[in-house]
Amino acid sequence: MTVPTITLNTGAEIPQLGLGTWPLDDAQVADAVEAAASLGYRHIDTATRYGNEAGVGEGIRRTGIPREQFFVTTKLDGEFQGDDKAIGGLEAALDRMGFDYVDLLLMHWPLPGRDLYVDTWRTFEKLHADGRARAIGVSNFRVEHLERLLAETDVVPAVNQIQLNPHVTRPAQREYGEAHGIVTESWSPLGGDGAGVLREPVVAQLAERVGRTPAQVVLRWHVQQGLVVIPKSANPDRMRDNLAIFDFALSAEDMDALATLSQGPDAGVDSNVSGH
Ligand code: A2P
């Protein structure tokens, strides 16, 4: 299965589907990355906060596939905001992974109460300019945070990675992204544990009708809207399932049926923009 790519504002291509890795530890993630790569995954999403960057690097090395064939994202959390702390943060992350660059470096949260995200973005711009972060972006940003970056800094984020699934559809962030060339990436695209998206009768009925699994229907809903998705699974059968979504389409009626699942534009999203 070949995964389509989306062109970032840097000109780089991001595979539209990647492997999410939270909450796997180093040993679990190394096995998961190896299994995923053998199925065709070439996009891996990690974060310093997940504590598994070393395992991601290890898993990629174990595949024997050249590093440059992978698209690797990591994220720096609040500890690395302000005072150019992101430079040491990325250097330490690269040391753990055993790489000399990441394809995408994200600011994990805006943490607006600290008001350091604009300053931190200027450090991200330096890391982008020196090539250690081939692209830079943000995560869990709301429109007002994006507006400030665009008004006060030079580089437009390549990506905004946000919690997004049929229950929580985030239209404001997506529209802003489309207007400014910022790719929206969905974290917990299946709704994560317990959210019940996969158990929705609408999803189950659609899955049955199109002869696909509930997870495939939900992931197809994302990619058909131009979103990048990073479903997490440590189970190779599910990884295979999640990858096999580029050979069928949902009809406009199917998409309308899934739209009825929305619980509100930002339903259940932490107002302090925390996330995982
Ligand atoms: P597991 O790792 O045991 O496969 P999200 O990425 O939306 O947060 O979802 C991750 C959760 O969904 C994990 O609990 C994962 O469990 C489960 N999951 C991943 N892929 C599938 C699938 N194809 N079918 C059912 N559950 C899945």
Characterization of this structure:
The protein is an alpha/beta fold and 276 residues long. It has a single domain (5-193, 226-233), classed as Alpha-Beta Barrel (TIM Barrel). It is 39% helix and 13% strand. The chain has helices at residues 26-39, 53-63, 85-97, 117-129, 143-152, 171-180, 201-210, 214-223, 236-243, 252-259, and strands spanning 5-7, 13-15, 19-20, 43-45, 71-76, 104-107, 136-139, 159-163, 183-187, 228-229. The strands form 2 sheets. The protein has an 8-stranded parallel beta sheet with strand order 3-4-5-6-7-8-9-10. A two-stranded antiparallel sheet has the order 1-2. Strand 7 (136-139), helix 5 (143-152) and strand 8 (159-163) form a beta-alpha-beta unit. Helix 2 packs across helix 3 and helix 7 packs across helix 8. It is globular, with a radius of gyration of 18 Å. The site of adenosine-2'-5'-diphosphate (A2P) has 18 residues, from helix 9.
